[in-house]
């Protein structure tokens, strides 16, 4: 399983967490089973993303908030866009994945799963985050 596909699966789990508000180890195991993720490397990457986003949640949400337009609150962001932003910021800031790779792949996921404006919204937020770091 390549990194792009694994990143997409990580996004799907993050989206599920955004909806449910929390996730247990059993939920993650069921997610792996239902998506037939048997690659140890893919499982470890996805667990790392979930754990890392939880660990740095305050900072990641702050990064998103301070790059929103005036009069915008984080609560207005769709769950899909929020999951994509969290994934991207975690990978760029904490995993040191090249930002061009992350932004490109997350924007592609936004095209596939988000609304019509998702890709430009996400691209704009991430461009601002990258400039700051």
Produce a short descriptive summary:
This protein has helices at residues 3-20, 25-34, 40-55, 57-66, 79-94, 99-113, 118-132. With 133 residues, the chain is mainly alpha-helical. Helix 4 packs across helix 5 and helix 6 (99-113) runs antiparallel to helix 7 (118-132).
Task: Give the topology, please.
Blueprint: H1 3-20, H2 25-34, H3 40-55, H4 57-66, H5 79-94, H6 99-113, H7 118-132
Helix pairs in contact: 1-3, 1-5, 4-5, 5-6, 5-7, 6-7
Describe the protein's architecture and organization.
It is a single chain. Helix content is 75%, strand content 0%. The chain is built from seven helices and no strands. The protein is globular, with a radius of gyration of 14 Å. The mean pLDDT is 94.
Helix content: over 70%
Order of helices and strands: HHHHHHH
- Morphology call: globular
Give the distance, in angstroms, between the N- and C-terminal Cα atoms.
Answer: 31 Å
Residue runs with pLDDT of under 50 for 5 or more positions: none
Q: Report the count of strand segments.
A: 0
- Radius of gyration over alpha carbons? 14 Å
Please give a handful of descriptors for the protein shown:
single chain, 133 residues, mainly alpha, 75% helix
